[in-house]
């Protein structure tokens, strides 16, 4: 069964791992990432991200899992928008072009119940 928990689109943390999760159009951002953005915008020093070589296997595995799970939210948002475009009679060719794929590839990936 796929994970349906809401996650920050930036750091991948589950909503239960953060204080707040703010919804945007097809994305979510947690209070921790907002705080980091505030630091960047106010020209305050920001913590650097550790290089991948500096992370343990466990940390990298946790990163991969979080990133993989947050991908589902984005896929759902793209699917909804493609369905909405199709309901407006936008062609598969135009949808494919917007997604950088052929008309056939777009149809195969997103047609579902058409």
UniProtKB/TrEMBL annotation:
Classification via InterPro entries: Znf_CLPX-like, Znf_CppX_C4, Znf_CppX_C4_sf
Domain ClpX-type ZB: 1-49
GO process terms (BP): protein folding
Keywords: Chaperone, Metal-binding, Zinc
Pfam families: zf-C4_ClpX (PF06689)
Coiled coil: none
Binding positions (Zn(2+)): 8, 11, 30, 33
Superkingdom of origin organism: Bacteria
GO terms for MF: protein dimerization activity; unfolded protein binding; zinc ion binding
Family recorded in the similarity comment: Belongs to the ClpX chaperone family.
Protein's recorded name: ClpX-type ZB domain-containing protein
């Amino acid at each position: 069964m796929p994970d349906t928990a809401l996650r920050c689109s930036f750091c991948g943390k589950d909503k239960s791992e953060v204080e707040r999760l703010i919804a945007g159009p097809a994305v979510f951002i947690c209070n921790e990432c907002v705080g980091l953005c505030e630091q960047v915008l106010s020209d305050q020093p920001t913590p650097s991200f550790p290089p991948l070589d500096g992370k343990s296997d466990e940390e990298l595995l946790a990163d991969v899992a979080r990133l993989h799970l947050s991908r589902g939210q984005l896929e759902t948002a793209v699917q909804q928008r493609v369905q909405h475009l199709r309901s407006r009679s936008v062609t598969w060719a135009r949808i494919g072009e917007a997604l950088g794929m052929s008309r056939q590839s777009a149809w195969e990936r997103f047609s579902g119940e058409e």
